[in-house]
Design a protein that fits this description.
single chain, 18 helices, about 0% strand
């Protein structure tokens, strides 16, 4: 009687590659070597069982070794890439931005060091910045005690509010009208005509208005020819704030139209189709679909516009200052130029400039706070 072939059933030995002898060495379980196959089946089953329990080995991106848990990383390698690798990857973009950064530093931030003259009795001709005596906040005290400065500040804000009410909604209205034009050729032609005055200088704009609404302008001559008395809007102090607002509308409304048309192009057309299916007319679609889509852009531009409340066009006002008088046309920039720079009182002008900057920052923060209260993002999002 032949002895039965023995097969090792130890899982460890099977996992390590120990297998049963080749079938056919014994005939106890059949002459076809079924005993060997049974032993190999047990070894494979043990190996699979062990692999299932321990789980397959995870490899990294390159397949070399187990992958590390990126969420547990810390330090400069968090996120899987270091700042040196990012710099090496984006070196072309960094080199492209270096000239812009250099220009920004040279023309925007280095001149800020000159604000030291606001705290000096600055003598531009003999002593310079290093030799001028330090006077502390005397220049700011002069500003707060100057009643004329506060009159000019109030007049500047009145002109700004007038322009905000009359000028700001007009680009929105023009963009909505252009958006309803079906012909792309007509829409492009109208947009080009409206945008063209943006490239005109203020000298040309004031000249055009002088030829139209001046004492010898076309409108005045036409009224005289038909038996009416002439008029001259260019020298009317009470009409000045409306005049400069009309000039700003004619010159810069086309620029604002481009911004709002870009925002309208991003509106999902499915919203209009769904509103039309629900029975909404053209005005309802504009009120409930178009204007809500423009709200973020309107809020952002309004905050930026409020921040530049004291930055009215200096050249526009200066060209018309003598025609209507300083009482109606004087703004903060022209007052600083006339009182500070033209007379050589640079310390006073620098102090007024610092006050203007701080006031503008406060206006931006206040307007942005209001935008957050209305549910809009504004210049920066609310944390």
């Amino acid at each position: 009687m032949k002895p039965r072939a023995t097969v090792s059933t130890d899982p460890d030995s099977a996992a390590d590659g120990a297998s049963a002898p080749a079938g056919g060495s014994g005939s106890g379980d059949g002459a076809d070597g079924s005993g060997g196959r049974t032993g190999r089946s047990r070894a494979i089953g043990a190996r699979r069982s062990r692999t299932t329990k321990s789980g397959p080995a995870k490899s990294g991106p390159a397949g070399n070794g187990p992958a590390k848990d990126r969420s547990a990383g810390s330090g400069p390698q968090a996120g899987g890439i270091t700042w040196r690798q990012r710099l090496r990857r984006d070196r072309t973009l960094v080199l492209m931005t270096l000239p812009a950064i250099a220009l920004l530093l040279i023309f925007n931030y280095v001149p800020l060091l000159g604000n030291i003259v606001a705290f000096q009795d600055y003598d531009v001709y003999d002593l310079g910045i290093t030799g001028s005596p330090f006077v502390g906040f005397d220049n700011f005290t002069r500003i707060f005690e100057d009643y004329r400065f506060w009159e000019v500040l109030i007049n500047t804000l009145v002109i700004f509010v007038t322009q905000l009410v009359l000028f700001f909604p007009i680009p929105i209205a023009i963009a909505l009208l252009l958006n309803t034009i079906m012909s792309a050729r007509v829409r492009a032609w109208v947009q080009a005509v409206v945008y063209l005055p943006h490239f005109f200088s203020w000298v040309l704009v004031v000249t055009v208005f002088q030829q139209m609404f001046g004492g010898a302008g076309l409108v005045a001559q036409w009224l005289r020819d038909h038996g009416h008395g002439g008029f001259d809007l260019m020298t009317n102090p009470g009409f000045f704030k409306f005049l400069v607002s009309a000039q700003a509308v004619w010159k810069d409304a086309g620029w604002g139209v481009i911004v709002f048309l870009a925002a309208l192009a991003a509106v999902n057309t499915d919203l209009y189709e769904a509103a039309a299916v629900d029975g909404a007319g053209r005005w309802h679609r504009m009120w409930h679909v178009t204007l809500p889509a423009l709200r973020p852009v309107i809020a952002l531009l309004l905050v930026l516009r409020v921040g530049s409340a004291l930055n009215l066009d200096f050249e526009q006002i200066l060209l018309q200052r003598d025609q209507v008088g300083a009482g109606a046309s004087e703004i903060l920039d022209t007052y600083i130029w006339w009182t500070g720079i033209k007379t050589g009182d640079f310390g006073y002008a620098a102090a007024a400039g610092i006050f203007k900057g701080l006031f503008s920052v406060a206006m931006v923060l206040g307007a942005n706070k209001v935008a957050h209260m209305l549910g809009e993002q504004g210049v920066y999002s609310k944390k």
